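Recall that a protein's primary structure is simply its ordered list of amino acids. Everything else, from secondary elements to tertiary packing, is in principle encoded there. The following example makes that idea concrete.
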Amino acid sequence: MVKKAGGKVTGSVSKKTDYVVAGESAGSKLEKAEKFEIPVLDKESFLDLIASL
């Protein structure tokens, strides 16, 4: 869905990351997103964002 909307999927979080989609057990990627102040989306927020494009 991300690629179809023109985005890029990565396996890591960096300062260049725009959003992180996180579930209940996000672990270190969630911690990194919070450290870099990257918006974290749950499944519903992600689907809303994709639908709005």
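The radius of gyration is 11 Å. The CA atoms of residues 4 and 50 lie 10 Å apart.
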